């Protein structure tokens, strides 16, 4: 089978890139042909036989004139249609697997796939993996940036709130473009052309299903995860761990406030981000900074438990999965897809997102109950998340339907 992976970035940049690289590599090992289409970049590490990519768009380094040009190209991209047409003709895929495509590539690529299909007479299946809320929310996060609160006002298809609250980078111009982009593709009903949508969580699937054009074609597959090789015995460690980005949406503000209320409990943080200075000021927090994956795994395995205090709609956070794979219980916020990954009273506990008092109480309760932590840690042995190999087998079933 021939699979064309489509993603705006074709260099290491974030979770969606890790996903397409690993998925593509495993599919090749299984004997399938895989090529990639996206934006050109000096660090691009995957490609296609046509050598066709869209020109690089860097919004942060763009001049005033470039920004005006980018504004038009983020709604509809004739270049993306032209370039993917070359790839379709050269590679002739059986499946086009879309990932993050808005703004840099735009849904124009979907139109071109269907156009090529009609002209060539070859049926092409379009699959889309939702890494965020981009199909139903112009800023992709379901978050009102003016209040820093979760927001679902755009779910009904009225995207005016995006402009009203400057939801894209707190910019009226960018938010207006995002609003227009969402309305444009809604009116063209382009997302109807997607055959199957893969959601990493039931929560995200439910939000996507708010679009009547998408309901009924969504399948939930929790993310695959690399299993740690050295973790054999559960350990109730002598610190509480947070690892990830030091940012407001991750609930760092609430966790710092809780740590301040619990000076007798030692915390370890691993990561980086805009709130790093506040992390460094806390007397009972040791900041390990950014670590490699094997170092993170060892830190997780040595923790009493891990805290995932997010205050936005996480869909399927690896932090919860990695913790349990390393036999560490999780205290997680009851928000987004987090509750789907924790069996309360078995592998961890939940608390009300943003509720510092409840978070503090739950941390103290777990810290003082080593017997419960030991039981939770042992229960983590029975947690199963798909390996990359298992995930790809599921993916092939979807491709072939």
Explain what the structure shows:
The structure is a single chain. The protein has 401 residues and is of the alpha/beta class. It folds into two domains: 2-129 and 189-224 and 389-400, Glycogen Phosphorylase B (Rossmann fold, 3-Layer(aba) Sandwich); 240-382, Rossmann fold (3-Layer(aba) Sandwich), CATH 3.40.50. It has helices at residues 15-29, 64-73, 78-91, 108-120, 160-164, 172-188, 202-208, 252-261, 276-281, 293-301, 318-325, 356-367, 370-379, 388-400, and strands at residues 2-6, 33-37, 95-98, 125-129, 143-144, 149-150, 196-199, 218-220, 240-245, 267-272, 285-287, 305-308, 330-333, 348-351. The strands form three sheets. A six-stranded parallel sheet has the order 2-1-3-4-7-8, with helices on both faces. Strands 11-10-9-12-13-14 form a six-stranded parallel sheet, with helices on both faces. It has a two-stranded antiparallel ribbon with strand order 5-6. The model has no long low-confidence stretch (mean pLDDT 92).
Give a quick set of tags describing it.
Rossmann fold, alpha/beta, 401 residues, six-stranded parallel beta sheet
CATH-assigned fold name of the largest domain: Rossmann fold
Q: Which structural class do the helices and strands define?
A: alpha/beta
Structural domain count: 2
CATH superfamily of the largest domain: Glycogen Phosphorylase B
- Rounded to the nearest angstrom, the distance between the terminal CA atoms is 13 Å
Radius of gyration: 22 Å
Could you state the order of secondary-structure elements as H and E?
EHEHHEHEEEHHEHEEHEHEHEHEEHHH
């Amino acid at each position: 089978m021939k699979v064309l992976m489509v993603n705006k970035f074709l260099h290491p940049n974030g979770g969606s890139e890790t996903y397409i690289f690993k998925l593509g590599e495993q599919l090749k090992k299984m004997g399938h042909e895989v090529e990639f289409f996206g934006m050109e970049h000096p660090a691009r590490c995957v490609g296609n036989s046509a050598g066709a990519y869209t020109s690089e768009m860097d919004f942060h380094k763009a001049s005033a004139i470039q920004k005006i040009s980018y504004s038009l190209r983020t709604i509809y991209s004739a270049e993306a249609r032209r370039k993917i047409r070359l790839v379709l003709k050269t590679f002739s895929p059986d499946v086009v697997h879309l990932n993050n495509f808005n703004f840099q590539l735009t849904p124009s690529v979907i139109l071109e796939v269907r156009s090529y299909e009609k002209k060539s007479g070859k049926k092409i299946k379009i699959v889309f993996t939702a890494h965020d809320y981009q199909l139903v929310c112009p800023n992709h996060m379901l978050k009102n940036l003016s209040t820093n609160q979760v927001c679902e006002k755009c779910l009904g298809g009225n995207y005016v709130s995006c402009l009203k609250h400057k939801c894209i980078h707190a910019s009226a111009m960018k938010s207006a473009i995002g609003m227009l982009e969402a309305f444009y593709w809604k009116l063209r009903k382009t997302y109807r052309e997607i055959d199957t949508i893969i959601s990493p969580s039931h929560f995200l699937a439910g939000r996507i299903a708010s679009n009547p054009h998408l309901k009924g074609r969504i399948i939930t597959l929790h993310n695959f995860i690399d299993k740690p090789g050295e973790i054999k015995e559960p350990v109730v460690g002598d610190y509480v761990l947070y690892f990830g980005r030091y940012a407001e949406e991750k609930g760092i503000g609430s966790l710092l406030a809780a740590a301040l209320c619990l000076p007798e409990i030692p915390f370890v943080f691993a990561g980086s981000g805009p709130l790093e200075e506040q992390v460094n000021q806390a007397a009972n927090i040791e900041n390990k900074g950014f670590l490699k994956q094997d170092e993170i795994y060892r830190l997780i395995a040595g923790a009493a438990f891990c805290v995932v205090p997010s205050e936005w709609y996480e869909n399927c956070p690896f932090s919860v999965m990695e913790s349990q794979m390393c036999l560490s219980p999780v205290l997680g916020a009851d928000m987004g897809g987090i509750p789907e990954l924790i069996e309360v009273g078995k592998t961890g506990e939940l608390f009300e997102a943003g509720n510092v008092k409840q978070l503090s109480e739950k941390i103290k309760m777990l810290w003082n109950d080593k017997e419960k932590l030991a039981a939770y840690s042992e229960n983590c042995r029975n947690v199963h998340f798909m390996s990359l190999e298992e995930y790809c087998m599921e993916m092939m079933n979807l491709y072939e339907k």
